[in-house]
Amino acid sequence: MDSGSQTNFLSWTTGLIDLPWWGYIVVALALTHITIAAVTIYLHRHSAHRALDLHPVMSHFFRFWLWMTTGMVTKQWTAIHRKHHARCETDDDPHSPQMVGLQKVLWEGAELYKDEAKNQETLDKFGHGTPNDWLEKNVYSKHEQLGIGSMFLIDVLLFGPIGITIWAVQMIWIPFFAAGVINGVGHAVGYRNFNVNDASTNISPWGILIGGEELHNNHHAYASSAKLSSKWFEFDIGWFYIRAMELVGLAKVKRLAGKIELSGAGAVDDRTLQAVITHRWDVLAQFSKSLKSTCVAEIKRVAETRRFKRPNITKWLTFDKKFLSDGEMARIQQFTGESKTLATIVSMRDELTELWLKSSATKEQLIHQLEDWCVRAEQSGITPLQEFSSRLRRYA
Questions:
Q1: Rounded distance, CA 348 to CA 364, Å?
Q2: Helix locations, 87-143, DSSP H
Q3: How do the domains of the chain map onto residue ranges?
Q4: Which of 303, 334, 299, 330 is nearest to 313 (CA)?
Q5: Residue 251 is inside which H or E element, if any?
Q6: Cα 228 to Cα 237: distance, rounded to the nearest angstrom
Q7: Could you count the other beta carbons within 10 Å of the beta carbon of residue 386?
Q8: How many whole angstroms separate alpha carbon 298 and alpha carbon 382?
């Protein structure tokens, strides 16, 4: 074989780009990371929640890239995600591990997505405001597999046979990490900054591998915020990209989670009420943090005296009551019957939760109810509850 033929043969076996073994790993990670960025910035924060506006150039680049690497249609993804928030942890939730099990969502999340994408009612009710131009109707939504097939040819042409592996990694990345890990693990395992009325968790404080989506509990607390990190130690790489695009005019942030501010304690007014309702999930988290040690001590005291089986009070303090079994609720009632302190804490938490559910009440009525709640908390004789009430008055 002459040198010219050999060079031609090598170009077909190694592709147009020849890299060391580690170079192909870097390329695969870089390509999948672009896809992750497209999902979190374009599909999630821009399309589903309208937390930011994107320059048409960036919007179409992300749409085109997702067509090439996932075949996902903007309207379908947006509608399914909005329905997830609207029906979270119910039988109508498209992908709740609390309903169908963690293993099902983790390993079959893509199948759950595809099944829901066929539900025209979901698309009609939750898919409004998504692209409906010529390209969307005649290319992206009509020929979903064409983009994926084109990506396959490009990978093979550029990298040779190893391009098939790179392509396979691209195809697996979103179905596993986005559909499986975020929708599954992100509602089952991790820590919580906010006691939202679903099971969402922060998988990790450093949102890098999945574009910041690891901070899932933060997102469920402030769904319309373009920034997913909340605590000083948390990092949201998606927010880093958004800020970089904003600096060069390619994005405009519309909504961020309101900053929690505490003023001097005083009488409850309309500003206090609004702040408490806006930051209600933080309010419940602070309640849990403040009263946990008191609850644990009371449960220990009653258990030693009456030999009752102890309830999972930590879960009760952290999660909505709907996540407790009938047996757990019965044990809590058993202990509250033996402890006035526990009974007070349980009833006060329930009343506080009901405050933002009373949509028929006027603002003046809600202010009066919140003030009355604070007064009773301060007269309870339970020091942590009194201290929490003082903090509650300072929300502004």
A1: 20
A2: 97-100, 102-117, 120-126, 134-135
A3: 3-253, 270-393
A4: 299
A5: strand 251-253
A6: 9
A7: 15
A8: 12
pLDDT digits 0-9 by tens, 24-68: 999 999 999 999 999 999 999 999 999 999 999 999 999 999 999
In the chain, the N- to C-terminal Cα span, in Å, equals: 80
137-193 confidence digits (pLDDT tens): 999 999 989 999 999 999 999 999 999 999 999 999 999 998 899 999 999 999 999
Report the share of the chain in percent with pLDDT over 70: 96
Least confident residue range of 12-21, 229-238, 342-351: 12-21
What's the CA gap between 385 and 348, in Å, rounded?
9
CB under 8 Å to 105, separation ≥6 — which residues?
Answer: 95, 96, 97, 112, 179, 180, 183, 184, 187
CB-CB contact of 218 with 186 (8 Å): no
CA distance 202 to 379: 36
* H or E segment and range at residue 207: strand 206-207
- Residue 262, SS3 per DSSP: strand
Contacts of 261 (CB under 8 A, 6+ apart): 275, 395, 396
DSSP structure class, residue 236 = E
Side-chain half-sphere CA neighbours of 260 within 13 A = 19
Nearest Cα residue to 210 out of 175, 244, 245: 175
pLDDT at 2: 52
| Cβ atoms of residues 105 and 183 within 8 Å | yes
Q: What is the CA radius of gyration of the chain?
A: 26
206-207 and 235-236 as β-strands: parallel, antiparallel, unpaired? parallel
Q: Tell me which amino acid residue 356 is.
A: W
The total of other beta-carbon atoms located within 10 Å of residue 91's CB is 8
d(C-alpha 43, C-alpha 66), whole Å: 9
**What pLDDT does residue 251 have?**
98
Decide which of 317 and 223 is more confident. Answer: 223
Q: How far is 57 from 365, CA to CA, in rounded Å?
A: 49
CA distance 332 to 312: 8
Q: How far apart are CA 184 and CA 215, in angstroms?
A: 13
155-189 burial, b at 16+ Cβ within 10 Å, e below that, comes to bbeebbebbeebbebbbebbbbbbbbbbbbbbbbe
Tokens of residue 125, six digits: 């009710």
